[in-house]
């Protein structure tokens, strides 16, 4: 099944089979986030949450940049009302990210070109990041006199540690695709003209896995930082026992002994 919403808007949502794609669509300004973009992310997240059968979510950006951060022109135009404008832009965007974070599906960011500010935060918000070889990350916030948003200050310490996260956020140096790979900020680096193919391959591979097992594994890994070892062991047992009663687990066991590939239904 294919579904498209806001085909000409700043955020395009398409659903093809088990894969949902959220595509940022303001290439003329490097997909900078304005109010409409924030509202579009929230609307897309709500639509995905209500759509059964989705197994993977892909984030991508039109043009030469995944996303270059917030729309600074909107803040300049707001003048003395910049604080109100910040809430107007950030709140729906954060609500959308919160909703996406609560979903069981793995999220992939496919990034290229300049990826700065909120763009970097949103890219790292995902469970997987596929980067084109021309990608350049920059936290950027400190250069415009502010702190980060879109979960960057949450993701970075978990990915690179507190000390390196502080360096990235406070110094705002450029980080090349290869440097990002070495820092564990991305999963793979591919030639720009292979970004779509590599992302589709990863999404397709994930979509073939057992959805319940994928969801529980994501929940365990994402929640591990807040759990003691004893709590984590208890949760692993609970999830494993629950999944053991699923049709997909039975299918996987039977497929193993019958020497064939399993076909998962998410039940």
TrEMBL record:
Any Pfam family: ECH_1
Keywords: Isomerase, Lyase
GO molecular function per UniProt: hydro-lyase activity; isomerase activity
Superkingdom as given in the UniProt entry: Bacteria
Matching InterPro entries: ClpP/crotonase-like_dom_sf (IPR029045), Enoyl-CoA_hyd/isom_CS (IPR018376), Enoyl-CoA_hydra/iso (IPR001753)
PROSITE patterns reported in the protein's UniProt record: ENOYL_COA_HYDRATASE
Family to which this protein belongs: Belongs to the enoyl-CoA hydratase/isomerase family.
Descriptive protein name: 2-(1,2-epoxy-1,2-dihydrophenyl)acetyl-CoA isomerase PaaG
Organism expressing this protein natively: Halioxenophilus aromaticivorans
